[in-house]
Amino acid sequence: MNKHVNTITAETADLSRRSFLVGTAATGLVLGYAGVPGIGEALAAPSNFEPSVWYAIAPDGLVTVTCGKADMGQHIASTMAQIVCEELGAKWSDMRVALASNDPKFNDPVLGAQITGGSWSTMMNFDAMSRAGAAGRTALTEGAAAAMGVPASELVVRDSVISHPKSKKQMSFADVVKSGKATKTFTPDELKAIKLKTPDQYTMIGVSVPQLDIPSKTNGTAKYGIDVMLPGMVYGAVVTPPVRFGATVKSVDDSAAKKVPGFIKAVTLDDKTGTTTGWVVAVASTYANAKKAAAALKIAYDGGPNAKVSSESLLDEAKRLQKLEDSGQFFVKDGDPNAAFGSAAKVLEAEYTTSINIHAPMEPMNATAEFKGDILHIYSGNQFATRSGAIAAGAAGIDPKFVVMHQMWLGGGFGRRLDADMMVPAVQAAKAIGKPVKVIYTRENDMTMDFSRPLTYQKVKAGVDGDGKLVALSHDVVSAWPTARWGIPDFLTPSVDKKGPLDSFTVNGADFFYTVPNHYVRAIKNELAHNATPSGQLRSVAPGWTFWAVESMIDEIAAATGKDPAQFRIALLDGKGKNDGGAQRLRNTLLAAMGLSGYGTKQLPKGEGMGVACVSSQERATASWTACVAHVAVAPSGEVTVKKLTVATDVGTQVHPDNIRAQVEGAALWGLSLAMYEKATLKDGGIEQTNFDSYTPLRMSQMPEVAIAVIANGEKATGVGEPAVTVIAPAIGNAIFNASGARIRALPITAEAVKAGMKA
Amino acid sequence: MPTLTINGRSLSVDAANDTPLLWAIREQLQMTGTKFGCGAGLCGACTVHVNGEAVRSCQTMVGDVAGKKITTIEGLSAKGDHPLQKAWIAEQVPQCGYCQSGQIMQAASLLGKNANPTKEEVVAHMDGNLCRCMTYSRIQKAIMRAATEMRTASVSGNERRPT
Asked: Which residue of B has its CA nearest to A262?
């Protein structure tokens, strides 16, 4: 695994702050945060029992868990509450959730920053939330023991009630909090020493409790960033240039905009954070007026260095870079594939590509900024408060410690809200006019200014020995480097050939669990793409393209050597050496998917076929073992109908079985959408697709049958939001090959490409 | 100032007649349950009812709905207990939830006319509503569950009626 972030700011270095805070000491520490007035909102009322930064118990017994993770529909807030609830012994109906501010005390206990992604949240917070819950239970129990005058060891905690079976005495959590007797404090070492429940003792983990956020999402009361209303607030509509990145504003003529009722000002952004280029924000009394004013602005641009770049030129550049022997850095360097190719019985080569893809969450990007005294308040649903707060500060020209981020529910994230571009116009407009400003992107702004999934080009070369065994694989991955754009060295990974850090979030997955003695993976940065199409992390990130190449190529090798593609994979998953453990779990997952789908059990009609793929997404060290069998029908026209997707996934431990199914299904359908329906193109430096008529995610009528098998074998809980995205495209591609003989190597898959690949 | 009849109340809004109904509802009336998604009638996030018909409020101008009966997600039921809302909770439909007001309003207009829809009728009626979290199968199940409840409720209602 990558090192990720351990210390971004000085505040995050103090481990004790996020470990366990009690009573007045906690209050003191919390108030100590950067000396920022206003952050006290994060504090519970003094009479509450706050056994940890992660939750507080009010005198009425309600337990409010503060979630430091962005909740974008994965119900992570509810999941954190569930983990706390298990050890605390509270009643589920007493649990509530709140969303954390950017106070570093809410930083991820493993990552040391506030960032939500990588399907990391459950696996990295399970222990901390469990310990926080257990500590609270211990403190409440000791308090109750003192109040009842009985030994704590004789007390039983269940459903928010602490009872003493011998004397039949009992106290509710509310009673103990009101009594003021819950005072025990924990040092980090004491926390670490707490003995947690074993899985056989769980009563909450593994139960599909009702998600706490769902009722508010059925009646219009859930508040997203776009719903923020502040007194005196006005609205900003952005005008973005025709070039995605690198344009500058030459002049702004606002004479027509001035005739729009309610128009206040057009502000040309001066973005020293380098997040935006050539943007203007039109500010007016209402959003409708702001949009009218924006449309009335006459802006002259200098298109800048990327004004002629296109998808074709990005691909040409990628191919040029791949051919250079010394480009890029090595992510994997096992054995010597080049030597092995020389003695191989058969050598296969193939190129795989994926298009630019757009996040397009349903809630367009937005942010509200308000200056109050020295403090900049930002209201926005965001996945990376640690970095976004710094960008908002940079846009304002102030120190990041003076920024308070108010987290909102996210109307979809998918990695898009790791970025902070939407905050820049809000901050600079609010600063320019001295009022709170809410900036809302139009869908057109949102699509053309996405931090997109980069266009990728991959070249894979494979060598097979005389027995049909895969002995060598070299895999070059050329793309923009989304994570390098962050400028945070700890998120990069040292290259194995010591040529400096590489962005492993472009090659993760290529370090698979197949045993291949000679294996190279080279990460090559496409600088042109990096500059012209600033890329982002799109749900599943690198494994979304690396497994497209790997799992297609494995199939190609199986076909070339006359082997069943599933059996060929099983043979490669022998669990030797560094692959021990993971390989066997992946093999079992593949077998489960095969079994559930009826793979190989019956003759399919002509024109139909099944394809398999199996993946260790997201990262080698954070893998959820996932396999798919896709069943497709291919018409003579090349038109593909996905009849069924069968997905099996080994998640170790299930916190919430129903949510896992929801996430895996959503991820699988994302995978299908990216494989077949979503394509963005760059022309003259700009993204050509502007709305849901030209960029077309999956709709209800395009949904196939989806069958899901979740394997929970008692290992540690792994992530479920992303892995299933990555297994779908190769499974479909392989199924198309099986059905029609057409080998597809470019995403998204088109009927034209399938028809062209079919043997007459 | 135009007056809107919305969720059973008459409210005047400080908005020009050519203002999209969506923004009048959200900003002037501060009913934020109705969402902005695309501004072009392509995603359904802004769906409300005008005289019982599902319309895209981003494509409906304030001046066009004077005197008509507008219903938003806030007014679909008194306590958030419309059979569809209950079904949405029972099936645990929402993920991010952003599109779900529009999905529920779109579905309500179907069940208002056809309490026994086929799966094909549900898909045809709902296909204009995007869900980027891809909760489509649960949306379908929830609509079928609500339809069943509405049919059962009306039947049992008839049975209980004194004669």
From this structure: B15
